[in-house]
Amino acid sequence: MKFLTYAGALAALLFSLATPLASTAMTTGDRSVTFDTALAPQYYGAGEYDGVLHLTIASDGAIMGYYRDGDTADVRTVFGGITGDRIWLDLGRGGPPITGTYDGGKIVGYTYLEGQTFVFTAKPVRPA
After folding, report:
1. Rounded CA gap, 86 and 1, in Å?
2. Taking the CB of the first residue and of the last residue of the chain, which one, N or C, has fewer CB atoms within 10 A?
3. Does 28 have pLDDT greater than 80?
4. pTM
């Protein structure tokens, strides 16, 4: 299933070029969190896509990690950023760009796929 439209791919590419790459080494203040995720149509449609998201959130707001699809076990590199309670994630290799909020350790975001809006939720497996 193709997740990313050409416009979304271009936006993700332009944003990634404008954003410095995060270091893969953890520093003081970095934290690692594992989430159970769901991606479901906001208004209509059946079913949802489940997965597991492993993130390292750096003290400067840079995010690195990986996402494992619950249906296919496909693993994708994830990068993103967080400022205050606003978060953005790119699920890599054609995955949808997600924008939303990070509040109380939970991520709620939105993306546009297959002609409709999808809601992305991520609940921590371990406390954030």
Report:
1. 28
2. N
3. no
4. 0.73
